[in-house]
Amino acid sequence: MPHLSRVSFFTSRKHKPSSTKMATLTMSRPPVAGFSFENCRRNVFLEGEVNNLECSLPAARKTGTTICGVVFKDGVVLGADTRATEGMVVADKNCSKIHYISPNIYCCGAGTAADTEMTTQIISSNLELHSLSTGRLPRVATANRMLKQMLFRYQGYIGAALVLGGVDCNGPHLYSIYPHGSTDKLPYVTMGSGSLAAMAIFEDRYKPDLEEEEAKLLVRDAIAAGIFNDLGSGSNIDLTVITKGNVDYIRPHDEANKKGVRLIELEALQLTGDYKYKRGTTAVLSKCVTPLDLQVVEESIQTMDTS
Amino acid sequence: FVSEMLSAQGFGGPGKMKEYHYAGAVENRFSPYAFNGGTVLAVAGEDFAIVASDTRLSEGYSIHSRDSPKCYKLTDTTVIGCSGFHGDCLTLTKIIDARLKMYKHSNNKTMTSGAIAAMLSTILYSRRFFPYYVYNIIGGLDEEGKGAVYSFDPVGSYQRDTYKAGGSASAMLQPLLDNQIGFKNMEGVQHLPLTQEKAVQLVKDVFISAAERDVYTGDALRVCVITKDGINEQTIPLRKD
């Protein structure tokens, strides 16, 4: 039997060969007891220093957002808009708010963009190790428990409001998770600044045991309500449909808003003019050419968003 | 009323999370102002002037109205664009209308664009210590029939410009106008005079771009073109999200 070396992240521990006894829970470092606020004092001090210099720290980018989820007959449908705001300016017109947790579990995130991104990645990583350890497909309740324990540990300072959904051996499950660590297990949930608009649609049209197409339309309409009625949400609608053994990650499901295109019923007219600059329009003050002796190893093309 | 709404949401304002205080007194000061968003823009040409504004009225993260234009017709040759606090915009335009009538009855002639601008400056400064929270831009034709644009700050400082953007997306529009109309930061480009068609197209394009990035700008664009033949209004749809 091959040796499965389990390496924990503490390098102080000696490297041990695997034991064939019961599955040991060695993951990333185990949660530290008590609340650790060492960095909060440092942050306050730094902010004071910066304010003395008459500047201000960059504001954390929040996603504004409308996210929602619904449980239907065979699984769950998760939906999200794609606008990320920095204050009241749009920072990203097409960001992805539905994050991968495990092959059968996905999580939508609202609140501070960095917090939702990193939190879901950490739990995804831990859950993969856990799943290898148990030898089973992860359960949604496990992801929920890990997320809430981490968020509670940080007492709400991690601004991540999540909608967690997936299908496991016990069927489809949907949870909403708040930044302070409380969770709710419900058949339909909405989060974010557009949650009231989306919930209005759900409360009107949700019924138990929906079909897949009905559920997708309901989620699409709920996100659209958030996009058009909430200033913090906008652009396109992303959907993820999770059923037993299959995940449809539909991005974008609906391009609800196109730049400068007038949509009169089915007619789309290009309205914007063309703004191009001739070579040499920007004044060149000086030029210095340094030839580099390089060999082309790989060439790849990455498209730029010029919209 | 404004601060009650904000505290109910637990917000320190749109886009900010307030710190929770569970113990101790919480002071919620009443603020007489609100920010209703909106962007206005005016361009002066050789024999025309354009005043354009979006039509969205918002507050916090919500939309009050998708059809509330910010251009107000003052005379046959002058249009004013007002953005900022909608309550003050309405009162200010009423006051200007009243003063225009008074002038007409006393002097038996319509006020010129330059005169309206000077008058507005004094009206705004009279409220120096409780200002009208309004960003004004006047567009019109002067006595010689040439296009004129006058831009103001909330307490009455003004100057005559060729083009000016004001309101929530002003910082996004102004640099683009500086480049395309003022030919700033460009070398070897012909300084062609601005035609009316090109100016209208530019205004539409510039607002489409502003609607992409500013959450307060969108829904529709109202363009008023002022020429010696009168004022022509057009409405163009913008992003509704």
UniProtKB/TrEMBL annotation, chain A:
Q: Which cellular component appears as one GO term in the record?
A: proteasome core complex
Q: Where is the Proteasome beta subunit C-terminal domain?
A: 272-301
Q: Which CDD domains match?
A: proteasome_beta_type_7 (cd03763)
- GO MF annotations in UniProt: threonine-type endopeptidase activity
Compartments where found: Cytoplasm; Nucleus
Q: Which UniProt keywords apply?
A: Cytoplasm, Hydrolase, Nucleus, Protease, Proteasome, Threonine protease
Active site as annotated: 65 (nucleophile)
The positions making up the signal sequence are none
Give the family from UniProt: Belongs to the peptidase T1B family.
Q: What does this protein do?
A: Component of the proteasome, a multicatalytic proteinase complex which is characterized by its ability to cleave peptides with Arg, Phe, Tyr, Leu, and Glu adjacent to the leaving group at neutral or slightly basic pH. The proteasome has an ATP-dependent proteolytic activity.
This protein is called what?
Proteasome subunit beta
From TrEMBL, chain B:
- Report one GO cellular component: proteasome core complex
UniProt key word Transit peptide: no
Decide whether keyword Lyase is in the record.
Answer: no
List, alphabetically, the InterPro entries matched: Ntn_hydrolases_N (IPR029055), Proteasome_bsu_CS (IPR016050), Proteasome_sua/b (IPR001353), Proteasome_suB-type (IPR023333)
Which UniProt key words apply to this protein? Cytoplasm, Nucleus, Proteasome
Per the record, the GO terms for biological process are: brain development; cellular response to ethanol; proteolysis involved in protein catabolic process
- Pfam families linked to this entry: Proteasome
PROSITE patterns the record matches = PROTEASOME_BETA_1, PROTEASOME_BETA_2
Q: In terms of domain of life, where is this protein from?
A: Eukaryota
Q: Which locations, inside or outside the cell, does it occupy?
A: Cytoplasm; Nucleus
UniProt lists the family membership as follows:
Belongs to the peptidase T1B family.
Q: What does this protein do?
A: Component of the proteasome, a multicatalytic proteinase complex which is characterized by its ability to cleave peptides with Arg, Phe, Tyr, Leu, and Glu adjacent to the leaving group at neutral or slightly basic pH. The proteasome has an ATP-dependent proteolytic activity.
Q: Describe, as the record does, how this protein assembles with itself and its partners.
A: Component of the proteasome complex.
Q: What is this protein called?
A: Proteasome subunit beta
Q: What is the lineage of its organism?
A: Eukaryota, Metazoa, Chordata, Craniata, Vertebrata
